[in-house]
From TrEMBL:
Highest classification ranks of the organism: Bacteria, Bacillati, Cyanobacteriota, Cyanophyceae, Gomontiellales
Domain of life the protein comes from: Bacteria
Alphabetically ordered keywords of this record: Lyase, Metal-binding
Protein name: Cobalamin (Vitamin B12) biosynthesis CbiX protein
GO molecular function, one term: lyase activity
UniProt-listed InterPro entries: CbiX-like, Sirohydro_Cobaltochel/CbiX
Species for this entry: Cyanothece sp. (strain PCC 7425 / ATCC 29141)
Amino acid sequence: MSKPPAYLLISHGSRDVRPQIALEHLARLVQQAVSASFPAPLVGTATLEFGPTCLTEQIQQFSQQAHTQGCEHVQILPLFLLPGVHVIEDVPQAVAQARCRLDQTSLRGLKLHLCPYLGCHPGMVRLLKQNLQTHPFSTWILLSHGSRRPQANLVVRSLAEKLGARVAYWSTSPGLEDCLHATPPCAKLGILPYFLFHGVIVDAIAVKVEQLQTQFQVELNLLPPLEPTNELVHLILDCLSSALCCPAYD
């Protein structure tokens, strides 16, 4: 049996320990799923910010570990939901820098495959719809972080349309408050946070939701963000499959 690739899951990173705990849990679930086809697969994690070292060094160190275990290539999946600056610039730059460093060592033949970011998977719509269907609200708001890249916000708007939801952003306009101005008193709305893992921002959203309920006299029901689940793991496995991976740094 051929040696499978090594898999590296990259998230944003946070000073809050909860996202890192969730990321490591997710990596274990992915490892368990992959082990059904390959023995002892190598699945690691890295963060763009607040990691033990810069992302470039984390990629390089994981690649060295993969090479030691006999892997011939590494598949790198950005666990980001929007095609913002991190996805378009920061992560590819770190991968390219790691590739250059590896080329100066005995690991020159090791291949790095940068996969499309998690949020672009077509199955994301289905996953979010499953969350909506378990709650009986006729009006929904899809709340995303937002980006300074207009194209990224258009992706969120398109996703909201597919879900039949209004769209709001945490870091730009329209915000949650803008979505509620035309809402009649006593209305019941569901808010689906398009975020990965609980953390500081999701906590702040919960506080804001409580304030807006009082201000607008409406019932706002905040769902949890995306967390490590079997459904999310299946999505990740699809992203990591060779059909969806882009060998940008062979």
